[in-house]
Structure formats: C-alpha cells, structure tokens
Amino acid sequence: MAEFRPICEKDRKEIEKQVVMRWGGRSMAIHGELIDVTNLPGFLAFENTQLVGMLTYRESSEGIEIISLDSFIEHHGIGSALLKAIVRATEEQNLGRLYLTTTNDNLHALHFYQKRGFTLSGLRIGAVIEARKLKPSIPLIGNDGIPIEHELELTYDFNRT
Q: Where does the N-acetyltransferase domain lie (predicted)?
C-alpha cells in the first residue's frame, strides 16, 4: 500500500529527474506560458521508500490548477489516491475551483478524470500549436496517432454525488 505526503524541499532533485524523464524537460507549456513543474507544491506517493507517483499544482486567482499527475505503476490506485488528496485539500481549505488542462490526444486522461468527477469546462482551439513556440519539443502526433493541437480544460464537480 502506498503512503502519501506533501512535497518538501529534499524531494526536488528526484522530482526534477522524474519530470525530465517523463515530460522531456522541467517545464510544461500550458495556457501560453512555461511552468517549471519542479518547483511546484504537490503530493508524492511512495511504496516502501520508492517514489511511485506525484501530483503537482499551483494556486491561481481561479483556484487550484493541477499541473501534472504521474503514476509510475499503472492500475494500482496511485493516481486516484493522489487526486483524492488534492480534492480533499482544495475542499477543506476552501480554495475554490479545482481544474486541469490536458490535450486533445490524451484520451486516457479524459477517461481517468471524468470517471473521477471532472467535467469538460473549456476548449482552447490551437493552443498546443501556439505552445510549441514556447516549447518546440512538444510532439506533433500524440497518443493513437492523433495530432496534438488543442487544450481541454476539466473542472472538478464538488457537488457530484
């Protein structure tokens, strides 16, 4: 069973290693800006002493924005548990809206988040095409051979029963 805790400063080197390996660099291009994922707050998941997942977020005027969610072992509930941690923290601290952005090719993420209470709340046509100006390493073709072109925003529905 995984154990979860907030990110602390001693975790930053391992977070950087994982982010660079999984995302191709320290930064993600979202909403027309580069965000350094390695310096964000978040939650980590460990099994024994091995890092098995992480979630990063940032606070904005709109609420809490999930920037990254990575489960290093699929289908063990790690991603779901990390998501529950940020949902709980957002609700308990009355931080407002909880939302995230994914790309049009990421059908796995769309399935995962909608199954866990998120609903589609925005579509930014051509946003990824523009993001490549900031981060040229973003691939042209993504999952299942789908061209990566658009950002989709999903928002957690706190009223869902």
A: 2-136
